[in-house]
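Sample pair:
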Amino acid sequence: MATVSPSWNYTLHLPHDPRAPGIARGALRLILAAHDLPELAPTAELLAAELLANSHRHTEGPYALRVRSAESGRLRVAVWDTDPRVPPGFSDRDAPTPPPPLDAENGRGLHLVRSCADAWGASVLRELGASKGGKLLWAECGGGAATW
């Protein structure tokens, strides 16, 4: 008899501290191991690392890592921060921006996310309250098509 795994999600609230992205990546590895999804760890960790680094570098407030399961071993990794501005070229409605020059020291992270994720996008959270406003950048990886 086939069993159905219930969906799950986790949110890790992080202070604006240079150690926070590393702690969040470690938590992500533990979450994937606990849910028997180690095959998603390399891609999910890369997606999370780039999104977390973007929030840490370009905002001054707290941020949060959100991890959510989906059907067929699919996973959504998202990072919320307090800045409502979506980086150019990251929204799924934006035309892709060209990659940075090969000798550039910055600017590759979101291009990596777009290249490695099966889907990606951004949500601007305009209402204060539970969401505290800001934005949520997300990326998906894993098997099967998502209907989010």
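The beta strands are 9-14, 63-69, 75-81, 119-124, 135-141.
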